[in-house]
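hiii, so i know i said id send this last week but things got crazy w the move. better late than never?? heres the sequnce for the chain we talked about at the cafe, plus the structure i predicted for it. fair warning i was half asleep when i ran it
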Amino acid sequence: MIRIIIVDDEPHALEDLEKKIGADGEFDIVARCANAFEAIKEINSKQPDVVFLDIKMPRISGIEMLSMLDKDNMPRIVFVTAYGEYAIEAFKKNAIDFLLKPVKSDRLNITLARLKENHQPQPVVTETFSTDLKFVPCYLGNQYYLINIREVIYAFSSPTTGTHLVTGDDGQEFHTNLPLKVFDDNSQLVRCHRQHVINSDYIKFIEKLENGLGRIHTYGDQTIPVSRNYMDNFPSIA
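okay and structure toks below
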């Protein structure tokens, strides 16, 4: 079975696509999501083979969402779009699969047949639509937020509670469904420890410790560890 997640903010389009895909017994729809917040969580937890991804969604577009996924565990992406011919030509040029809204059964069947032959990830998708991570989808209690990456002081991961962000002068802490390794591709944050990344703009000074270790002190008086493996990221103390 090929595991699929459908992402679309239009309920009718979501239901229609689910019904049409579900009619083929070789596909298992493991989740349906109305926005990128839901989709990131489901993709990270369910690890689908394929994601049918609407491009135009509120707050976080489908293209922006790609920058928030782990590139080492990227599913195959099929874009679902009502975009104009210019965008369609970009898809065609790079052999990226797409469906035009409203999705027609005969065109969908062509896509499904292709997926049966090969549902492995396509690096060309991330290469073509590669964008810097500018905002991080987070939550605090029942409230969802989009945090500007420049406002993140540091991020850390916990085996039991996942990934956390610390922001602003007051050190407000948020949760995010993004794995910590997603931040490694962003120049704003620097890996300093297996479980920590730091925004270099907030580094006040770096203390060199014994045994090749270090400790970052921020302007907000937070301290973040620097492990031996990441000393080269901080040449001033390496």
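btw The chain has a mean pLDDT of 89. thought thatd interest u
miss u guys!!
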